[in-house]
XXLT1 xylosyltransferase (Trogon melanurus), 227 residues
Amino acid sequence: SQVIVHDVNELTEKLFPIVEAMQKHFSAGSGTYYSDSIFFLSIAMHRIMPKEITQIIQVDLDLKYKTNIRDLFDEFDNFPAGAVIGIAREMQPVYRHTFWQYRRENPQTKVGEPPPDGLPGFNSGVLLLNLEAMRQSKLYNQLLEPTMVQKLTEKYHFKGHLGDQDFFTMVGMEHPELFHVLDCTWNRQLCTWWRDHGYSDVFDQYFQCEGDVKIYHGNCNTPIPED
């Protein structure tokens, strides 16, 4: 097997012009920091990786694998037509919170509502990027344009700080057909921050996950259970 190491500075240089316009909407700082571009790598991966690379799995570091990661590649075969990215739902009511204004103006909306019927948003800890589909999708590439990003952030009154995850979540509210939703067992998030920050009443509707966990995600520095 072959290991290729990519230079962060080199990647950032290619990324920055593509994602610069997004950063002010989805970065923690108020400014657009050059170095923040790396948190948007997944969004533009199809424009940065060589054409012969058709599929990539991008994962966070705070994961524990209970199964062979190779099995996750099979999920690419389950993408419906038009889908470009495989991603699991966010398992906390973070986007219920972020979309509060849109939700108040649209009381019947599914935006920010818990599964199975709601749209809780996505968590980018485990990402299946079908680079070939991303390159070919006219819709996906239109959504990277600054004017489109601006239009959607205005529509949803969206201001985030989680990088690519916020972008995918916002786009998923508008165009769910671009995403293949992975089962929660592929990205079993453990962070419970929002339980103690005003959402204890609804927290478990977001946090529950049936089935044998394949990947644990110790987000927000949450310890991962020992075997």
Summary: Residues 8-26 form the longest helix (19 residues). Residues 14 and 48 are 7 Å apart (CA to CA). Residues 8-217 form one domain. The chain has one domain: 8-217.
